[in-house]
UniProtKB/TrEMBL annotation:
Pfam families: KH_PARP14_1, Macro
Location within or outside the cell: Nucleus
UniProt protein name: Macro domain-containing protein
A single BP term in Gene Ontology: positive regulation of type II interferon-mediated signaling pathway
Domain of life from the UniProt record: Eukaryota
GO cellular component entries: cytoplasm; nucleus
Top-level taxonomy: Eukaryota, Metazoa, Chordata, Craniata, Vertebrata
Molecular function GO terms recorded: NAD+ poly-ADP-ribosyltransferase activity; NAD+-protein mono-ADP-ribosyltransferase activity; transcription corepressor activity; ubiquitin-like protein ligase binding
Domain Macro: 94-281
Alphabetically ordered keywords of this record: Glycosyltransferase, NAD, Nucleus, Transferase
Length: 294
């Protein structure tokens, strides 16, 4: 039997996890499938540490398991950061960058709370069974009220779970928008990077096409495949902006969409998105009918 592996846990993260009983239960179940047991620290421990007790068959998998625990720590940190930034900046909407395209479509990046964002349709970064996965997805469903989750559950009951790259549209409950598009992005795998990028671009395209089908004029997209889906931020930004550009170009100016907003509460994310929008549309800046707004 290999020795237990201890991983220090930030006290701030441990405080957060203690308020998330379902998350701890899910983690324990996942580790049990891998024939491992997690020993959690005492509630009031000053220097908390997770202890991983693997079976002998997993002696060669210590490092991957340690990496997995660290990933959970990062997810919990991002979850708490999202809540702090969201409620600390409630009702704020900061324009970071905007680009008016020659055909009159506005592409803009905002630092804002998507739960109160004034557009026709917002995109929810969902999982395959349309259940909340923490962060923005959970916040959107709570703000919308129980009817939105009920509608999602009914869709899954009738049609089954969604595959990565797919998107469906529902009502918006109590949200200020008209509809919500639930988009299922891929989970990042470095050994399948090309496939992940393809599926993410497909997810974005499906979302934009759904908005067009319902004749919406404005759409707001969050970070799809971020958080627990682990998509690298810059690669995500390149993929989503390229997909937006490609989809709008294919519509040949006939799209009902006149505004595409990229929205997030994290400063790093909106800065990366702003830079990426500017870089990808850079070639258009020399055209006489293109107008640039920084």
């Amino acid at each position: 039997m290999p020795d237990p592996v201890g991983v220090p846990l930030d006290p701030y993260i441990w405080q957060f996890l203690q308020r998330q009983a379902e998350l701890i239960q899910d983690i324990n179940q996942e580790m049990a499938i891998c024939h491992c047991e997690l020993k959690w620290p005492q509630t009031d421990c000053a220097h908390p540490e997770i202890v991983l007790c693997p079976s002998s068959s997993l002696s060669e998998k210590k490092k991957p398991m340690i990496k997995l625990i660290k990933t959970w720590k990062q997810d919990a940190s991002k979850e708490e950061q999202y809540k702090d930034e969201r409620f600390g900046n409630k009702d704020r909407k900061k324009l970071c960058y905007k680009r008016m395209l020659p055909d009159g479509v506005l592409v803009a990046v905002y630092k804002a709370d998507l739960c109160a964002y004034p557009v026709d349709v917002v995109v929810n970064a969902s999982n395959e069974d349309l259940k909340p996965i923490g962060g923005l997805a959970e916040a959107l469903l709570k703000a919308a009220g129980p009817e939105l989750q009920q509608e999602c559950d009914e869709l899954v009951r009738k049609n089954g779970t969604l595959l990565p790259g797919c998107a469906v549209i529902t009502g918006a409950g109590k949200l200020p928008c008209k509809n919500v598009i639930h988009a299922v992005g891929p989970r990042w795998r470095e050994d399948e990077a090309e496939r992940c990028v393809f599926l993410l671009r497909k997810t974005v395209k499906k979302s934009l096409q759904l908005a067009e089908t319902y004749n919406h004029h404005s759409i707001a997209l969050p970070v799809i495949s971020g958080g627990s889906f682990d998509f690298p931020l810059q690669m995500y930004a390149d993929s989503i902006v390229s997909s937006i550009k490609e989809t709008l170009e294919e519509s040949m100016g006939d799209s009902s969409l006149k505004e595409v907003h990229l929205v997030d509460v994290a400063e790093e994310t909106v800065q990366v998105l702003s830079k990426t929008v500017k870089n990808i549309y850079w070639a258009l800046e020399k055209q006489p009918h293109g107008r640039v707004h920084a």
